[in-house]
Amino acid sequence: MKQLLIPAALALVMAACSSTPESSDAAAGAPVESRGGGSSVTTVTTGGVETGRLPAVLTDPKSILSRRSVYFDYDSYEVKAEYKDLVTAHAKFLTENRQFKVLIQGNTDERGSREYNLALGQKRADAIRKMLALLGAREEQLESVSLGEEKPKNEGHGEAAWAENRRGDMLYNGEF
Amino acid sequence: MLGIVLKLRRFGLVAISALALLQASAHAQLTIEITGAGTNRIPVAIADFGGEASAARVITSVVRGDLERSGLFKMIDPGAAVMTEASAPVYEEWKSRGADALAAGSIGESTDGRREARFRLYDVTKQSVLGGSAFVTSKPMLRAAGHRIADMIYEKLTGEPGIFSTRVAYVIKAGAARYELHISDADGQNAQVALISKEPIISPSWSPEGGRLAYVSFENKKPVVYVHSLASGKRIVVANFKGSNSAPAWSPDGRKLAVVLSKDGGSQIFTVNADGSGVQRLTTANAINTEPNFSPDGQFVYFTSDRGGSPQIYRIAAGGGDAQRVSFEGSYNVTPRLSPDGKSMAFISRRDGSFRLSIMDLASRQVQILTDSHKDESPTFSPNGRMILIATEVGGRGVLSAVSIDGRIKQRLSIAAGDVREPAWGPLNK
C-alpha cells in the first residue's frame, strides 16, 4: 500500500508544481488545433504587477510629492521652468530616502509611428531623470523608460488631449 | 477604381476545432472588404468541387474567396454543375463563358481511409492541363486545403508564389486594459490568441521560419522585448535592460535580432542573439535611432533617425560603419520595411499632415504614395512582395488594410470587437 501511495503523492506534487507562477507563461491553455508544420498557437496570459503601500508624504494630496506629472510642449523634450519645484522636491525626497527608487515613464501624443514615439517619450523621461540626478538622486535610484503613445491619459484626438499626453510620470517602488 | 465593394463574411460552414475555447470568439473575427481591384484580371472559373457536399462547399468557397480577394482574378460564373478532377472539361463551353482558366476537384477518401483533396487546373485557351495535386486533409483542415489549392492556382497563373496559406499576426485592443496578440490565416479566419495582457503589446515580428514572434510587451510597466514560440507558448526575454527595450527585427538567418535599447542613453540600435546573449551596439550617432529592419540579404539594417533634424530613413552595414541617408522628400519619413526581393522599401511618409503608406524603388529612389488615408502605420510586406499590409484608421477605429504595391488593389480588414493594429505578415508556408 505504502509503495503505491508514494508515486501517487509524487504525481500530486508534480501536478501542483506545474501550476505555480514559474510556469505561468505556458499556462492558461493547451495547444490548439494541430495544423501540421507547427502552426498551432498556445494562448498565454501575462501576470500583473503588485502595488505596494507608500508613505503618506508621497500620496497626501496636500504634499507636493503627490504630484508626479511633468508636461511638455509640442516637439519639446525640456522640463519647463514651472515644473522645477516639483522635480526638485522629488530629488530632495530621493536624496533623503535612498531606499526609494523612481520609474520615470515618458509619453507622447498619438501622431506618428509607434516606435518613433517610443523614442520621443524616452527623450522626455531622460530629461526628467537627468534633472533628478543633477539635484542629488543617484542613478541607481532612477530608471527612465518610455510608454510612447501606448498609454494616453486622455484618449481624445485634439490638441487638448494631445497636450495631456505629452508627459512624464514619476512612479515610486510599489507603484510599478 | 474603387468599384466593387464585396463583403465576405465568415463562411459559417466550418467546424474548425473541438478546442473552440481558445479560438478567438466569432465577434473577434476579421472581415475583409475589397475596395479596389487590378486592371487586366485573369478570368478564371472554379467549378463546384465533387465528393462529400458540405466539405466540397468549404473548399470551393475558400478557393474562390482567396483568388477573388487577391484582386488579380475575375471570377467566372461556373454554373451549378459539379465537376471533379476526373471530369473531362468541355473547353468550348468554358471559352464561351469567358474563362481563360478552369479548376475542378473533389474531396474524397485516400487509399488509407483519410480524407483527400484533389484538384486539376486547365488552360481553357490552350485546351490543356496546367497542373493538379492531391493531398491528405481532415475536417478541421479543410480551409487549409482550400488555401493550398488557391496557392497552387495563383502560382500557376501568375508565376509568383501564392500567400493564401500564410498567417498574419496583429494586436487587438479589446478594452481599456485588454490587449490580445492574434494569429490568423491570411484571410482573417481561424484567429487564435497567442497572448492576452492588461498592458500594450506592439511591434510583432515573425521569425524567418514562422514558428516564433518577437514583440514588445509593457506588462512590466516598461517596454521589454520577448521571443514567443507559438506552438508551445514558451516565451523568453530577449532584452530587458535598464530603460526601454523595443523595435525587434529578425536577421534573415533567424539567429539575431536588431533591437532598440536606451540603456546607454538615448535610443540606439543593437544586435542580440535570439536567446538574449551577445548584445552588440550598432549605431553610435547621438540622436534617435530606431525601427531597424534587415535587408533580405542581411547586408544592411535600415532604420529611422532624427540625426539630421527631422525623422528620416538611413541604412547602415549590418556589421556597423557609417550610415547613409535613404529618404529625402518631406520632413517625416519613418518605419522602413524592405520588400522580400530587396528592391523596394515600404515606409510611412507625412504629407500635408497625413501619414501615408509610400514605396520607394531603391535603385532609382523614386517614391510613390500608395494611399490617401491619414493615419497609416506599421507596413508589412506579404511574403511574395505583392501586397503591403498596414494599420490605418477608418471612422476613428483601427483597421488593417492590404494595399497592392501599385496601389490599385485595396482590401480592408476590420473587426467588430475593437481596434486592430500592429500587423505582421508571416513567411511563406513551406
Q: What this model shows, in words?
A:
- The complex is a heterodimer of chains A (176) and B (430).
- Chain A is of the alpha+beta class.
- In chain A, 35% of the residues lie in helices and 14% in strands.
- In chain A, strands 2-5-3-4 form a 4-stranded mixed beta sheet.
- By secondary structure, chain B is mainly β.
- Chain B is 10% helix and 44% strand.
- Chain B has 3 helices and 32 strands.
- In chain B, the strands form 7 sheets. A 6-stranded antiparallel beta sheet of chain B has the order 1-2-31-30-29-28, with no helix packed on it.
- Classes of the chains: A alpha+beta (176), B mainly beta (430).
- Chains A and B meet through strand 1, helix 4 and strand 4 of A and strand 11 of B.
- Strand 1 of chain A pairs parallel with strand 11 of chain B.
List the helices and strands and how they pair.
The complex is a heterodimer of chains A (176) and B (430).
Chain A: H1 2-17, E1 44-45, H2 56-59, E2 69-71, H3 84-96, E3 102-107, H4 114-134, E4 142-148, H5 159-165, E5 167-172
Parallel strand pairs in A: 3-4
Antiparallel strand pairs in A: 2-5, 3-5
Chain B: E1 6-8, E2 30-34, E3 42-46, E4 50-51, H1 53-69, E5 73-75, H2 91-97, E6 101-109, E7 115-123, E8 128-137, H3 142-158, E9 167-175, E10 178-185, E11 192-197, E12 201-206, E13 212-217, E14 224-229, E15 235-239, E16 245-250, E17 256-261, E18 268-273, E19 280-281, E20 289-294, E21 300-305, E22 312-317, E23 324-325, E24 333-338, E25 344-351, E26 354-361, E27 367-369, E28 377-381, E29 387-394, E30 397-404, E31 410-415, E32 419-425
Parallel strand pairs in B: 3-5, 3-6, 4-6
Antiparallel strand pairs in B: 1-2, 2-31, 6-7, 7-8, 9-10, 9-32, 10-11, 12-13, 13-14, 14-15, 16-17, 17-18, 18-19, 20-21, 21-22, 22-23, 24-25, 25-26, 26-27, 28-29, 29-30, 30-31
